[in-house]
Design a protein that fits this description.
This protein is mainly alpha-helical. Helix content is about 75%, strand content about 0%.
Length: about 290
């Protein structure tokens, strides 16, 4: 029973349900590679890879940042600083998820399996980047943005340069909303020698950086539609994504970040699902 409670606490700590952020983009990459629905076993193992990789990354982040979390009033009640989980248990959970990820990639194809250590390195090492660069947001973007390219490899066993456009789009999307999210910790991060865009250029400047990143995302999505000849249905999806991003930026401001969690969690989950639905429809109708 104690083990089950610890696992439950761990799943709550890593917010496993937030896999919704990157999973639809991974499935988009898989459908682009397959030209429609991939085979069922491929979808299954891609989902397993996504969930295990993200779980390993989030648990590792909580393990690495436990002391920093304890010093931050906003995060001091997270599982490790609050004493609900031991560092050893979280480390063991991270290793377990990483092993499951590697095993899952072995069920897809040889290239996916060979690249699995690199994928883990990308998603795990992000946790250290804010210690030495203000651009840590881009590293987080790369960690999630690699999902479409990884899914393409899972389906094809090769990498097409066109899918890197979707990886870049997700990179800027994630980096943009992470810049916004980091605004609430700017003073704490500055006091503890951590780096971020809000620390470096202030809250107002950070909001402009986030806007530019999200504009870049939309431009890259339009390019993706052109590269894959996805047509008007996908363009409607991008228009909806643009509207959702605009709403996300309208409900928060440098002087009022009370709705930041709604902008960060709810809206971005909706954005990823909406984009996937319209691209999937474009591909299926084209067939």
């Amino acid at each position: 029973m104690a083990l089950l409670r610890s696992v439950g606490t761990t799943l709550e700590m890593i917010k496993w349900e937030h896999s919704i952020f990157a999973l639809p983009f991974a499935l988009t990459g898989a459908m682009l590679a397959a030209g429609g629905w991939p085979r069922s076993f491929q979808i299954l193992w891609i989902v397993v890879c996504m969930v295990t990789a993200r779980s390993a990354a989030m648990a590792f982040n909580r393990w690495v940042d436990a002391d920093l979390d304890a010093a931050n009033p906003r995060t001091s009640m997270r599982a490790i600083p609050a004493g609900h989980l031991s560092r050893g248990f979280v480390a063991a959970f991270t290793i377990f998820m990483a092993v499951l990820f590697i095993l899952a990639t072995s069920q897809l194809n040889r290239l996916a399996f060979y690249l699995s250590p690199l994928a883990l390195a990308i998603v795990l090492l992000y946790s250290y980047t804010k210690r030495f660069t203000r651009w840590s947001h881009l590293f987080l973007g790369l960690a999630l943005g690699s999902a479409p390219s990884a899914a393409w490899i899972a389906i094809r066993g090769t990498l097409d340069p066109r899918i890197l456009v979707l990886t870049a789009a997700v990179l800027f999307w994630v980096a943009g909303f992470d810049v916004l999210y980091a605004c609430q910790d700017a003073e704490h991060d500055r006091a503890h020698g951590l780096n971020s865009i809000p620390c470096a250029i202030g809250i107002s400047g950070a909001f402009w950086v986030a806007r530019i990143m999200h504009a870049a995302m939309l431009g890259l999505l339009l390019w993706l539609v052109h590269l894959f000849a996805l047509g008007p249905i996908a363009l409607v999806g991008i228009a909806l994504v643009a509207a959702l991003l605009l709403y996300e930026h309208l409900i928060v401001s440098p002087t009022d970040m009370r709705r930041l969690n709604a902008a960060f969690f709810t809206m971005n989950g909706v954005i990823s699902v909406v984009f996937f639905i319209f691209v999937a429809a474009a591909l299926l109708i084209r067939r």
